[in-house]
Write a structure and sequence with these properties.
The complex is a heterotrimer of chains A (416), B (355) and C (337).
Chain A lengths: L1 H16 L9 E9 L5 H17 L3 E2 L2 E10 L3 H14 L4 E3 L4 H11 L6 E3 L17 E2 L12 H7 L6 E6 L2 H16 L9 E4 L7 H6 L6 E5 L2 H13 L6 E3 L6 H4 L13 E4 L8 H13 L9 H19 L9 H8 L2 E4 L2 E5 L5 E12 L5 E12 L7 H6 L12
Parallel strand pairs in A: 1-3, 1-4, 4-5, 5-6, 7-8, 7-9, 9-10
Antiparallel strand pairs in A: 2-3, 11-14, 12-13, 13-14, 14-15
Helix pairs in contact in A: 2-11, 3-4, 5-6, 11-12
Chain B lengths: L1 H6 L9 H16 L2 H28 L6 H15 L13 H23 L6 H19 L10 E2 L5 E2 L2 E2 L3 H22 L3 H11 L1 H6 L4 H27 L1 E2 L6 H14 L5 H20 L5 H15 L3 H17 L6 H6 L11
Antiparallel strand pairs in B: 1-4, 2-3
Chain C lengths: L1 H6 L1 H19 L4 H7 L2 H32 L6 H19 L2 H22 L8 H23 L15 E10 L5 E7 H23 L1 H11 L1 H6 L4 H26 L6 H16 L4 H21 L4 H15 L10
Antiparallel strand pairs in C: 1-2
Classes of the chains: A alpha/beta (416), B mainly alpha (355), C mainly alpha (337).
Chain lengths: 416, 355, 337
């Protein structure tokens, strides 16, 4: 009796342990990886909305094949991102993977991509420079821009229009803010602006108490460049106001975004007039963008009031994946080589303007320069001041010249 | 058993058939499992189980529930990245792999002994608090320190060497390496529990005051236990860093620290097999929960499993199994023997089935 | 006091000198060399005040933790979850009613009730099993953290405290003299001073409650000898439930106070749990005055760490813990462990 049971059990085990179930001929398996657990869950969910939005537009079909979506989840740590990617690729057998969400996850997944040359990886919303700049993976594509690109035009704007000459810097102490600070300071300092090294404050990520830092901010600067995200930004803004701070601010891409401006609690009048730059602008009055926002709102009544930059980035990357599939008629039989060729040469219009890739498969796209204003209902919104067209990853200089700037870090650029 | 093995007095009939089957299954596993199951399920379970084993040893035999075991493992992983090679461009001193590994494991064991020295002077419940504080402080520290630990980003490109022409990160070799390490420490703990050191450790757990009066150096015994558990956790930590090919603050985060406790407690703290059972369950759940339930509430499931184990089956899954077996047997009126007593005399755990 | 002077004349002199130097550093205008050596006076004074006010907040959280342990030997590792839950509940109530104070009161009561429930439904059933109780609280905190994330998502919440608590006050301390001879005064957020005030008030209230009331006497008796207390005919279970209610309520109360000073977001539970752990390890488990000393020490260490050597701030806190454990394993004010 038991012997038979054991045999059955073993058979079942072997069946389930065998490799990935092969996809049927008329179906393409696509994986989507985002942070669906932990503190970034809300952002990951919005990223997934972007994926679904793009798939919905194509009716879950591309190049005559059905698209089967399989989701994976990380907790924003690179370890978990790679584990989830490995499960999607090696167990579920996805041929195309869209994700992940955050910078260090992106770097980890890129490294993993190198071990899976047959699978095509498209970025989610991660924006670390080195994902594509240094040692890129042949099969990793990024149709969204990176953190330094997002700052395009901001340095020039505050130097020329606002007339700031000397700024203090307050940012979290890890790679994404380094990238943003670099993107902002590089043009600002080239024009002659100053950002003394002893007026740069690097706080640990997740720091809640900014009072000591606020106390150390120098009095002789024209403005403070703040690159903090989410909760950290909200904490700083409140405490700065409480402490009676009165210097104007310059925002990083996620410092004065919709999640911060619309956070529960006090509205912060003193951020009105804060300039910032990023890959999207909520209030951009453009038919393509408005259509995108309308589609998002219709499909996801429970989503954000307007798609976040995570939904946007996931949408753009998924869209690229589908368009390239159309081009090769859904044929991935050569291990996806032709498909990746099509991706490399793909050029299409996104809700935020045209996008194409450079030779390291990073996006060249438009960037939005914005400023916080008071909206019609007394709420704070970002107004589009200028669209910086077709910003590339090396910010207008050659690849070699850009590499010579060195890796982003606390003291890059030195501004001397 | 080992002693008899050396004397050549052991015969095939002495080996519990269930153990032989288990060993055979584990050895043959890669032949029928896919690379994914060999590497990400098999090897990863064995490694997590080994870390949990180091906790089981401290908690089960020494009565010291240390939440810093994963921290010790993570420390070893960090040292491998710092002394060996990594692809980040920070530290990476490029020492030969074998020196790196030995130094990393020994340093991790010393770190563990230090944690022991800090916490064993106090008694009982303090241990869990102090080790938790150390674990959290270590996480915050590596996240903020850029000079040595490369802060938030941590290290990538931490790879095992190619030795004897084998790339040890290929799924099958890596699996066998993990299996060897897990089996080695499993047997070592099993055997160690019967050694005079292990026995006095258990006696200290049950009555430290009496042992002190008998002239035992209680503090030293406990610190030594921490050192040994550090060897286990450190070795697993090196392997985990190789498994992930990276180590970062996320690898030593509070949630992962708690996961190890969950694995050990749910699996069972009375026998070295428990942590491995817990680890297999945990890894399967971690990988496949998303296909069955909403992944979002993964932590609730984990927490509930833990809570249920603590509330209703303090000996974890092994304890449950044991009770069930006893019940079955007594209802059949055959050999009504208490499983618990059997464990305490250190003989192999009842993992067998009636055949 | 006099006996201390007679016995430890040397230390008394050292302490007196330290206090004198400190007062001088706060009130005098700094000469240039001091400015050059350790940075501006504004930074120093602000950091000091931040440390003290943060210490106040830590005391509010840790006093409940230590109170519960002192009587019931229960290490409640879900204490951080109670802090966070109190903050969320307080936020919802304050948001709905528009009254911050009402939110504060409801947070206290709601978390106190949850404390009673825990004590009556779970901990009472496993009395004397320290380790098992602690493990249960870990399980509860895992589930609680996940459920709170489900309900309140990862968004950051901030309270709107009453208008008169918002903004900065000018302190009668000169920061620096401008070149035109005008003195620049140091500004400090009013709310933070209020936090300190509340912490001191709660500390005094706790002291009076424990030392001057009958119930307080019972609790102290229970801390010393539980069996004796029940032998005298006191309903021990009632006292236990009461203490758990106060301890948990304080965590909820601190949630609103702390959530207003900083903000509420997932992960705060771990942060305040860690703070409570270190504070009571340093101060001595079960001692309310120890919690006060520990909180002050840790608050100051954290803030001076952040201001003067950011990367190693955690190490400073940690070192304090290790040194205390090495010299006095039971904590500064602890009895025998």
């Amino acid at each position: 009796m038991l012997g038979l049971g054991k045999k059955l059990l073993a058979a079942a085990a072997i069946a389930s342990l065998a490799g990935p179930a092969m996809a049927q001929d008329d179906t393409i398996k696509m994986g989507a990886l985002a942070t669906l657990e932990g503190a970034f869950t809300v952002l990951g969910e919005d990223g997934m909305r972007g994926v679904e939005l793009a798939l919905e537009e194509h009716g879950y079909m591309a190049g005559g094949k059905k698209i089967q979506l399989i989701t994976g989840s990380s907790d924003a740590s690179p370890d978990s991102a790679v584990r989830a990617a490995r499960k999607l690729v090696e167990q579920d057998g996805v041929q195309i993977l869209v994700g992940p969400l955050s910078g260090s996850e992106g770097l980890a997944v890129k490294d993993y991509a190198k071990t899976q040359p047959e699978v095509t990886f498209l970025n989610g919303s991660s924006a670390a420079q080195d994902t594509t700049l240094r040692e890129p993976a042949e099969n990793f594509f990024r149709f969204n821009t990176d953190g330094a690109q997002w700052m395009a035009g901001l340095g020039e704007y505050v130097y020329n229009e606002k007339g700031y000459r000397k700024v203090a810097v307050l940012a979290e102490d890890y790679s994404f803010p380094y990238t943003q600070v670099f993107g902002f300071l590089e043009p600002f300092c080239r024009l002659g602006g100053e950002a003394p090294l002893d007026a740069r404050f690097w706080v640990p990520i997740g720091n809640k108490d900014y009072s000591s830092v606020i106390a150390s901010l120098p009095d002789d600067v024209d403005a403070i460049y703040v690159a903090l995200g989410g909760a950290d930004a909200i904490n700083f803004l409140t405490q700065y106001e409480q402490a009676g701070g009165d210097l104007p601010l310059i925002g990083g891409s996620i410092t004065v975004d919709q999640t911060v401006l619309g956070s529960k609690g006090r509205t912060r009048d003193f951020v009105i007039g804060t300039p910032s730059a990023g890959p999207i602008s909520d209030t951009w009055d453009n038919p393509a963008w408005n259509e995108f926002v309308a589609a998002y709102k219709e499909q996801f009544p429970d989503g954000f009031p307007s798609p976040s930059l995570f939904a946007h980035a996931y949408y753009v990357n998924t869209k690229a994946a589908l368009l390239a599939l159309e081009e090769v008629n859904g044929d991935l039989s050569d291990g996806g080589a032709a498909y990746r060729e099509a991706l490399s040469n793909l050029e299409f219009d996104t809700p935020t303007g045209p996008v194409h890739l450079d030779e390291r498969r990073n996006a060249v796209a438009d960037i939005f320069l914005t400023e916080v204003i008071e909206g019609p209902e007394g709420n704070l919104v970002n107004k589009t001041i200028e669209v910086i067209p077709q910003v590339d990853q090396t910010l207008g200089v050659s690849y070699e010249e850009f590499l010579a700037y060195g890796q982003v870090g606390r003291e890059n650029p030195t501004c001397e | 058993m080992i002693r008899r093995l050396f004397k050549g007095e052991i015969s095939l009939s002495d080996i519990n058939p269930a153990w032989a089957l288990l060993a055979l299954f584990l050895l043959a596993y890669p032949s029928f499992a896919s690379n994914f199951f060999t590497f990400q399920i098999g090897a990863y379970s064995l490694l997590l189980g080994t870390v949990a084993l180091s906790l089981m040893m401290l908690a089960g035999y020494g009565g010291m529930v240390s939440l810093a075991q994963l921290t010790v493992a993570g420390f070893a992983g960090y040292l491998v990245a710092i002394f060996g090679d990594n692809s980040v461009g920070v530290m990476g001193l490029g020492w030969p792999w074998w020196i790196t590994v030995i130094v990393a494991i020994l340093a991790a064991a010393s770190f563990s002994a230090l944690i022991g020295a800090i916490s064993v002077r106090t008694e009982g419940i303090y241990t869990i608090m102090i080790t938790l504080a150390i674990a959290v402080a270590f996480f915050y520290f590596v996240r903020q320190n850029y000079v040595i630990f490369n802060g938030f980003t941590g290290f990538a490109g931490v790879l095992p060497p190619t030795v004897f022409g084998v790339d040890w990160r290929d799924p099958v070799p890596f699996y066998y390496l993990s299996l060897f390490i897990a089996a080695f420490f499993f047997c070592a703990v099993l055997y160690g529990a019967r050694s005079s050191f292990g026995l006095s450790l258990q006696a200290i757990r049950d009555n430290p005051r009496r042992m002190r009066a008998l002239g035992y150096n209680v503090t030293l015994h406990r610190i030594a236990a921490y050192f040994l558990s550090g060897l286990i956790a450190g070795t697993a930590g090196v392997m985990l860093a190789w498994f992930n090919s990276r180590v970062s603050p996320g690898s030593v985060g509070v949630d992962v620290v708690i996961d190890i406790l969950v694995i050990a407690v749910v699996g069972g703290l009375r026998h070295p097999l428990g942590p491995f059972i817990g680890a297999i369950g945990f890894v399967l759940l971690e990988n496949f929960a998303i296909d069955l339930i909403d992944r979002e509430r993964f932590n609730t499931v984990i927490g509930l499993a833990f809570l249920l184990a603590v509330l209703f089956s303090p000996d974890g899954i092994l304890g449950l199994w044991d009770r069930l077996r006893t019940k079955l047997r007594s209802s059949r009126n055959a050999r009504p023997r208490s499983g618990r007593a059997q464990w305490e005399d250190g003989s192999p755990a009842p993992a067998s089935e009636e055949s | 006091m006099r006996r201390f002077l007679a016995r430890h004349t040397f230390w008394a002199i050292v302490i007196a000198i330290a206090i004198a130097i400190f007062l001088w550093m706060v009130f005098a205008v700094w000469p240039e060399w001091l400015d050059n050596a350790i940075g501006s006076k504004k930074t120093f004074v602000n950091t000091f005040l931040n440390g003290v006010t943060l210490g106040g907040l830590y005391f509010l959280v840790a006093s409940g933790f230590t109170l519960v342990f002192g009587l019931m030997r229960n290490v409640n590792l879900a204490h951080g979850s109670m802090y966070l839950l109190g903050a969320y509940i307080g936020y919802e109530v304050a948001d709905a009613t528009g009254s911050w104070f009402f939110g504060l009161a409801v947070a206290f009561v709601a978390i106190a009730l949850s404390g009673i429930l825990l004590q009556v439904l779970i901990f009472r059933k496993m009395e004397g099993q320290d380790l098992r109780q602690t493990l249960v609280t870990i399980g509860i905190s895992i589930i609680a953290a996940d459920l709170m994330l489900a309900i309140w998502t990862g968004t950051t919440y901030q309270f709107a405290p009453p208008e008169w608590l918002f903004g900065a006050a000018e302190l009668p301390v000169i920061s620096t003299i401008r070149s035109n001879g005008e003195a620049v005064m140091i500004k400090y957020p009013i709310y933070r001073l209020a936090v300190l005030g509340v912490a001191v008030a709660i500390g005094i209230a706790l002291w009076i409650f424990l030392n001057r009331t009958k119930v307080g006497a019972m609790i102290r008796a229970g801390v010393n000898d539980r069996d004796m207390l029940s032998a005298t005919g006191v309903n021990v279970q009632l006292v236990f439930a009461l203490v758990f209610a106060i301890g948990a309520g304080l965590a909820g109360f601190a949630g609103v106070i702390g959530g207003t000073a900083l903000s509420i977001a997932p992960g705060e539970d771990i942060r305040y749990l860690l703070a409570s752990l270190i504070v009571v390890i340093v101060g001595g488990l079960g001692s309310v005055s120890g919690a006060a000393i520990g909180a002050l020490l840790i608050g100051l260490a954290e803030q001076f760490g952040l201001a003067y050597f950011p990367t190693y701030g955690v190490v400073l806190t940690f070192l304090i813990m290790v040194v205390v454990l090495a010299v006095r394993p039971q904590g500064i004010m602890g009895g025998r462990p």
